[in-house]
Automatic annotation (TrEMBL):
Keywords: Hydrolase. The keyword Hydrolase applies. Belongs to the asparaginase 1 family. SMART domains: Asparaginase. This is asparaginase.
């Protein structure tokens, strides 16, 4: 039983300064008469719906997470660092679920913080009769109020996950995230922690312009057109969403080999949702022989973030992938 081995972390005795940083997403939407969910709620509205208080609200942006960009990651990172510098003891980030996993990993890789940073969101709009946003926010506030040194985590449907490996696995179910084992859970208003978050920080990145890394998804008959086009467009790294256990055809393998020879790193992940990637067939081994780096656990979205952060911090990409990928 988790509770038997968990550290039960209550809120701090002193008054914590928890900040709610809003960025948009389903959690802040209502469904219009045309059936489309659109942003309508401020951070104050979200706070009121959650029934929480003693939280500082920072309405940073209000965008669908499909509109999230690396530059906006940097805005969020700067805001988080600023609030911590001014005394915040915990940060909750309300975020759209479509790209929450990328933002969470970028923050984990580039922000070294002594307070919990908790990302959450919702699968159902704020005006849904069974909206999950208020409950997710309450749970996230519970985790943030402990002041525990957790790094960046994701709190969803009562589970608390490390940023590395998390991914959206369902479009509608409240428990929409998986991919990695939770480090704890929120139960009866208490955070029950039963594992530590592994250290993932690579280095602080303050510049707005980040290395371009593109993802190419393979399919039967794929050629080198997309790979070549991304490199011409300025890609400094590529992620190959390969077939099965990391396989590709000879045309793609030739292009990968060519780009690696020209100094463009290539990471290999898989389009298969589950399992650990380990090349076990001749095509996959050819990619490795060409110099491609296999990312065992992460899928393409987070593999791209990992590559970007390694390039931006000057970290050794192979070592980073071996440790975190």
């Amino acid at each position: 039983m988790i509770a038997a081995v968990a550290d039960v972390l209550p809120p701090r005795d002193s008054s914590p300064t928890v900040v709610l940083l809003t960025t948009g997403g389903t959690i802040a939407t209502e469904v219009d008469s045309d059936g489309i969910a659109r942003h309508s709620s401020s951070g104050g509205d979200l706070l009121a719906a959650s029934g929480s208080d003693d939280v500082v609200v920072d309405d940073l942006m209000a965008v669908d997470s499909a509109e999230m960009t690396p530059q906006r990651w940097q805005q969020i990172a700067a805001a988080v660092r600023g609030h911590v510098a001014r005394g915040a003891t915990g940060i909750v980030i309300a975020h759209g679920t479509d790209t929450l996993e990328e933002t969470a990993l970028w923050l984990a890789l580039t922000c070294s913080l002594p307070v919990p940073v908790v990302l959450t969101g919702a699968q159902r709009s704020g005006d849904h009769p069974e909206s999950d946003g208020p409950g997710n926010l309450r749970d996230a506030f519970t985790v943030a109020a402990t002041g525990a040194v957790l790094g960046v985590v994701v709190c969803f449907a009562g589970q608390v996950y490390p940023a590395t490996g998390i991914r959206k696995v369902d479009l509608a179910a409240p428990a929409g995230f998986a991919g990695v084992a939770p480090i704890g859970q929120v139960r009866d208003g208490m955070f029950l922690r039963h594992a530590d978050t592994p250290p993932v920080f690579l280095g602080t990145v303050t510049r707005a312009a980040l290395p371009r890394v593109d993802v190419v998804s393979l399919y039967p008959g794929a050629d080198a057109v997309a790979l070549d086009a991304y490199v011409r467009a300025g890609a400094q790294g590529l992620v190959l969403e390969a077939l099965g256990a990391g396989n590709a055809n000879d045309v793609v393998i030739e292009a990968v080999s060519r780009h690696i020879a020209n100094g463009i790193p290539v990471l290999v992940t898989t389009r298969v949702p589950g399992g650990t990637l380990a090349p076990g067939y001749a095509p996959g081994q050819k990619l490795v022989d060409a110099g491609a780096v296999t990312v065992s656990r992460l899928r393409s979205g987070q593999a791209r973030v990992l590559c970007m952060a390694a390039l931006a911090t000057g970290s050794d990409l192979v070592s980073v992938v071996e440790r975190l990928g």
